[in-house]
């Protein structure tokens, strides 16, 4: 019984240490965000990549992401009838529809981001409020993490 209690205490101490290290890190990020002045720094340190390389990288990231596969196998089968003659084909059809819809949404995000980028970066007041919002979010997550019980 003592060994179980000791492991439980060690686990609680480790949990608390990691938790408060995370809280401190979030508060540090909030402080650094508020401390930053001037425009957002968008730098391109890496060499320029071709469109083909970017697209290939994005495809590989999505194919190798296990969350996506888990989603497809957990969510889509409920839309396939038990009496379906070719369930794999139906699953493929549903997957393609989902991917097409996702592509359209992400393209809309990209177009929107490209259009508002210069407007946001050229307005110091907007950047100041964005920084304050980000810092407040970091502080909020830090407080929530500090209050988490085991």
UniProtKB/TrEMBL annotation:
Record protein name field: LysE family translocator
UniProtKB keywords: Cell membrane, Membrane, Transmembrane, Transmembrane helix
Topological type in the membrane: Multi-pass membrane protein
Gene Ontology MF terms: homoserine transmembrane transporter activity
Family label: Belongs to the Rht family.
Coiled-coil stretches: none
UniProt-annotated location(s): Cell membrane
A GO CC annotation given for this chain: plasma membrane
Signal peptide: none
Pfam family, one: LysE
Keyword Membrane: yes
Annotated transmembrane regions: 12-34, 54-76, 88-109, 129-147
